[in-house]
Design goal:
389 residues; alpha/beta; Rossmann fold; Arc Repressor Mutant, subunit A; Trna Endonuclease, Chain: A, domain 1; five-stranded parallel β-sheet; globular
């Protein structure tokens, strides 16, 4: 398995906190990373029915089995366990003794944050960023292949066809994880709902229209979006609003964390199918946005990323706050950059200049770095060359 960019932060946190909590989507590599970083820790998988039953029926005796601490994998399966762990930690706060992982965000955070407040470092391990993908022996050589394959480690580690692995992943997610998070009565309708969400990646999230298309009530659509967020399938990117709220669109944009999964849900199975697909631009935008978010998550930054859209047509795909300045980024899937693109980003920078100065870039589907005045034009392969934190 390749080295993950989060590894140094994970190891450093274990020197300061008695507990480190690592969340992220199922199969993002959490267990592998923890076992690599903490090879001397006992490993306990709470997905195993007998192990989980022991932890649920007698949590004190279960934890006493690990006097030197342990990696407790999929901790959300025993949400009461952190409460018992609190007392143990208060008696022995040895840094890095307990490592918790989980693939459900909201469920897990509520139990962990309430019981272990001030005692645990919180981190997210998301699917692979592009530099991590390049560490495998046979990374994708084209943009379309990269978008189609996505960023789940096992696809690269075991050289599995993306459509086969992602199909099995989605079936497991719906049949097991969705039932764990919420009592969804009709899984076929939920599957259709997820497919409709894939068709809206990179677009404003209109819950009313989405609910209508899925044939469900709007409160149900809202609850199901929360389920997808809790399991790191989708994210809602907020609109930038500081001091400009009256003129800006407030609706969030919807993105999938993984373009490979979005492609699979859209029925795209080969790179050539993607080349002329009407959603190719939205999928490329999804990849760029989530690449930035994943990069920041690997540096322990969970917020500070927005989009900008006003009611007069002004739009910036990404605004990243860096403390002393903004980065404004436009995202274009094509291989040619026109003057209209550069003009738009200049307009947005002028709107924001009274708040903070802004650096402007355009990330595009081409191969050559360019500079047009004060705008840097960055090819997709060099996205990691930018400072996003």
């Amino acid at each position: 398995m390749i080295e993950r960019n989060l590894a140094p932060q994970l190891s450093q946190a274990a020197k300061k906190f008695p507990v480190v909590t690592l969340t992220g989507p199922r199969q993002s590599g959490k267990s592998t990373l923890c076992r690599m970083c903490f090879p001397n820790h006992a490993y306990v998988n709470l997905e195993a029915p007998d192990v989980r039953a022991f932890a649920q029926e007698d949590p004190r005796r279960f934890l006493a089995e690990y006097p030197q601490g342990a990696i407790l994998d999929e901790i959300q399966r025993c949400p009461e366990l952190p409460s018992y762990l609190q007392g143990i930690i208060d008696e022995d706060a040895t840094p890095g003794k307990w490592i918790l992982t989980g693939s459900q965000n909201l469920t897990m955070l509520s139990s962990v944050s309430q019981s272990l407040a001030g005692r645990t470092a919180m981190m997210n391990l998301l699917p692979l960023v592009y530099p991590e993908i390049q560490r495998f022996p046979a990374p994708p050589h084209t943009l379309d292949t990269l978008l189609l394959t996505g960023g789940y480690p096992r696809i690269y580690d075991q050289n599995i066809a993306p459509d086969q692995w992602l199909g099995a992943y989605m079936a497991t997610y719906i049949e097991r994880d969705v039932r764990t998070i919420s009592n969804v009565a009709d899984l076929a309708v939920f599957q259709r709902f997820v497919e409709l969400c894939a068709g809206r990646t990179g677009q404003l999230l209109n819950l009313s229209a989405l609910a209508s298309d899925a044939g469900i009530a709007q409160p149900t659509a809202k609850a199901w979006i929360s389920i997808l967020e809790a399991s790191y399938i989708v994210l809602r990117l907020p609109s930038f609003s500081r001091n400009l709220a009256k003129r800006l669109v407030k609706m969030p944009k919807l993105y999938f964390y993984d373009t490979g999964l979005a492609c699979w849900l859209l029925g795209i199975r080969k790179p050539e199918h993607l080349r002329h697909h009407p959603l190719r631009g939205a999928l490329f935008e999804t990849w760029v946005v989530t690449e930035i978010i994943k990069h920041r998550a690997n540096q322990l930054q969970r917020s500070g990323v927005f989009f900008y859209r006003d009611r007069y047509g002004g739009e910036a795909d990404i605004i990243v706050e860096l403390g002393d300045r903004f980065i404004l980024a436009e995202i274009k899937a094509g291989q040619t950059i026109t003057g209209d693109t550069t003009g738009n980003i200049h307009k947005i920078r002028k709107e924001l200049q009274h708040i903070l100065p802004a650096e402007c870039i355009i990330i595009y589907g081409g191969e050559t770095s360019q500079s047009r005045g004060d705008i840097n034009i960055v090819p997709w392969r060099q996205i990691d060359s930018q400072i996003w934190v």
